[in-house]
Structures are given as structure tokens and as C-alpha cells.
Amino acid sequence: MHLVLWDVDGTLMNSRGAIRHARSTALRSVYGIEGEIRRVAGGGMTDPQLTLETVALHGWTEESALAHLDAFRDAYLAGLEEARASLAADLEVLDGVRETIERLHARGVAQSLLTGNYEPAARLKVSAAGLDTRLDFALGAFGSDNRDRLCLVPVALEKAQRLLDPAMIAADIVVIGDSPRDIACARAGGARAVAVATGPHPAEELATFHPDALLERLHDNDETIKALLGR
């Protein structure tokens, strides 16, 4: 049995701006950032870590930033909830995603998410994009489980052993993502690492991190499924 875990942003979908707006609004309201928000390269980061590194650029110590992190989470999630009605138009599902999810489902492959998003944010995005019907959120690992992404494969494995098959091991898990951090996360947890060059990192850069499989994009064919599952 396999468990395929999808990254969200840059792998399943892109946002045209609503997600960044909700995050920026929450950063200003909770951390009082004035003017243009200095940004970090957040691809593959968890929501909590991205927040901490962003506010550090604006003079916040980690200790003081952590004291406000729950308030930021609540404000960010409230902003996403307010934007729920417009998210479907804002989110762009990437080529081949729907078809690949359906092909895996037809083979009986369990699918969920491994993402740096807070779990409610991930659920909202995936549902708004219409990708939730084949994904079992109960098997997922999220930024709200641990702000260190390297710790997320064991989170998903524990859930899979409890809910799917007690004999499942980390090598039965496939992590699909678009960033070097996704590859590192899979490696740290002993899972299969599949990189897709659909985010900001080109295939040439991703190849230097030696994923088990590297795709320029997802295609609606058997070769894509073989690359994902390794057989």
C-alpha cells in the first residue's frame, strides 16, 4: 500500500494574490508591520516558520514573535475564511493535477497532504479548488502539527499506521512537492521524494537535490504514475 502526500502551494495550485493578501493583513494587524512587508523565500516552509522569519526581518525577536504567533494564526485563518467566496476564482489548479489524483484514486492509492499550511488553511484552499473529494485529510501532516517541516513525514506515518495499515513503513509514503525543502522533508522521514518543477524552482535546481523522481509537470498518463510510485 502507498500513501501519496501532496504539497499544496506550487504543486497542486497557485494563488493569484488572495492568500498573500490575507497573510499580509494578518502580519500588519498582529505584528504592526508598517509599509512594505519584507519577505523571505517561503517555498516549502511551514506557516509558523515563515511568519517567524518574516517578522524577524522587521526587528522581532523569536521570543516576542512566538508570543503573538497564535494571534497571527487566528487572524490569518479569519482572513482566508472571509475570502472563501472568492478563493475559487483566485486559485489556479496546475496542469495534470486533477487527472493524476483521479488516476491514483482509480488504483486504490490513498492520498492526503503534507504541507506547511496550517491544517484549516490547507483544507480551505483544497476545498475551494475542488480537489478535496479524493484526499483524506485525516492522513495528512500540516504546519500546525510541527513548525519544522522535517518532522512531518513521521506525523503522517503515525496516522497511516493507525488508520490504514499498522504494517505501513516510511518507504511506502510518497511526498510530492515543488521545492528543495519538500525533497529534504521526504528524505528526513525516509519517504520517496518526487519533485515537480511547477513552482519557483526550475528542474535544473531541483535535480541538484537528487529526488527519487523529477517531473517538469504532471501529465495524464501512466508514465507519471510510474514516476510517482516508483513502479
Task: Give a written overview of the molecule.
The chain has 231 residues and is of the alpha/beta class. It contains eleven helices and seven strands. It has helices at 18-31, 47-56, 62-67, 69-82, 84-90, 97-106, 119-128, 152-163, 180-189, 203-207, 222-229, and strands at 3-6, 13-15, 91-93, 110-113, 173-177, 192-196, 213-215. The protein has a five-stranded parallel sheet with strand order 4-1-5-6-7, sandwiched between helices. The protein has a two-stranded antiparallel sheet with strand order 2-3. β5, α9 (180-189) and β6 (192-196) form a beta-alpha-beta unit. The longest helix has 14 residues, at 18-31. The protein is globular and about 50 Å long. The protein starts with a strand and ends with a helix. The mean pLDDT is 96.
Topology diagram in text:
Elements: E1 3-6, E2 13-15, H1 18-31, H2 47-56, H3 62-67, H4 69-82, H5 84-90, E3 91-93, H6 97-106, E4 110-113, H7 119-128, H8 152-163, E5 173-177, H9 180-189, E6 192-196, H10 203-207, E7 213-215, H11 222-229
Parallel strand pairs: 1-4, 1-5, 5-6, 6-7
Antiparallel strand pairs: 2-3
